[in-house]
Design a protein that fits this description.
Elements lengths: L9 H10 L3 H8 L19 H10 L2 E7 L3 E2 L7 E2 L3 H13 L3 E9 L5 E9 L2 E4 L3 E3 L10 E10 L1
Antiparallel strand pairs: 1-8, 2-3, 4-5, 4-8, 5-6, 6-7
Length: about 160
Amino acid sequence: MILEPQSWACLPQAISIALDIPFSMLIEKIGHDGSEFVYKDTKFRRGFHIQECLDVALSLDIAFVPIEHHYALTPDGLETYVIGTEEEQSSRFQGYLQKTKRGFFEGVSLDNRCHTIGHAAAWVDGLIVDPRGTSYTFDARAANNFSINKFWRVIWF
């Protein structure tokens, strides 16, 4: 089992940063390192699902609460009804960030061929802490090649 951070492991890296626990501890508790090739297209590794990380967090008396950046209702997946304006949604989302010391984001980034790939980064004391080795403000996310879909607020109980 590989216990050092790898490019396919940004989700558990971000979560370990947000929870302030060693990456190796999280991987050991999940029970695999995400490196196995399990898909027909062998360029994709197994990776990780949020539920695997949540299971470990709950065993440590920690929960994640999802907060979507932009959201809408859809009865059939075709027609959508957006709740509020984009400005109202952004204001609401940033309000949660201002009230939260630790959490993590799910979103997308561009690879070297300009294809979108899933990406995750931590939120610690008002900064995005990216597993790629940088930290930046929420407003600098686009300049750092990160488009956010969802924020997971960490709650200890």
